[in-house]
Design goal:
Elements (H helix, E strand, L loop, with lengths): L8 H12 L2 E6 L2 E8 L2 E8 L6 H10 L4 H6 L1
Antiparallel strand pairs: 1-2, 2-3
């Protein structure tokens, strides 16, 4: 299985928008807010737009989005 490391904020934002249906809401500084509505549930996540995200930060973003790491790596 490939490693879950080496992703930039721009890569993550792009993958979430194109593959998982998240929409850009706003940006404050280097942090981008994305949102996805599933039925009655609204998922909101803040992604730091840094050159490379720390592994713990990336895992936290994926956990907040209800996206499995394996699904994310396939995209």
């Amino acid at each position: 299985m490939p490693k879950l490391a080496g992703f930039s904020g721009k890569n993550i934002i792009s993958i979430l928008q194109k593959s998982f249906g998240f929409l850009f809401v706003s940006q404050k500084g280097s942090h981008v807010k994305l949102r996805k509505i599933i039925g009655n549930k609204t998922l909101t996540v803040i992604v730091p737009d840094h050159k490379e995200l720390a592994l713990g930060t990336l895992r936290s973003v994926l956990r907040q989005e209800d996206v499995e790491p394996d699904d994310f790596l396939k995209k």
